């Protein structure tokens, strides 16, 4: 997920950028302090999401929100402000969430989860995305401790993010890298791998069992004995892929 922070306060922008980068859903964060600067960035580097402050020096963040629909690929909006009296107007611009300063990691994570759900629904409804070419099964190169290791995709059982690191579980052990899960998924064969959680992707051929878990979720058991959760938002796609 590519995120643009629009706020006239440098400290607030930097604080929010730090919190965003702690979440595995976020691949890239950029900043803008004014409406003109934000529009210029969005025209050259499209973003999936804008964290938008409302009071921007002599400008109003809602003026930017009203211009976003003119973009070819309008980003989603999360209003991020110190004031709680803009909620109705935020609803009118279809903001996904409304976050109050001072920011907290848990609240930012919650907002990103909501945005991720909307982005997934968008992708499912996009016929172009559905017909995009499938990636072929091949090799994955990762760098760990200044060494580049080449792995066969077929040997990868699962990939997941833990404490800011991407970990690949293979038949021969675990390998760590500072790449993101999104980076991994752009390189994996879509015919053999599927995402089951916002931070987990698994090799379909490595699944040995699927069992119900708490709160209408599931748990997958892999051929090496590892167990991974399937979050509610991925249950339907998992059932479709496994013909359940």
UniProtKB/TrEMBL annotation:
Gene3D superfamilies: 2.20.25.10, 2.40.50.40, 3.40.50.2300. InterPro entries: CheY-like_superfamily (IPR011006), LytR-like (IPR046947), LytTR_DNA-bd_dom (IPR007492), Sig_transdc_resp-reg_receiver (IPR001789). It holds the Pfam family Response_reg. Keywords: Phosphoprotein. The keyword Phosphoprotein applies. It comes from the Bacteria. Residues 140-244 form the HTH LytTR-type domain. The modification 4-aspartylphosphate is found at residue 53. This is Response regulator.
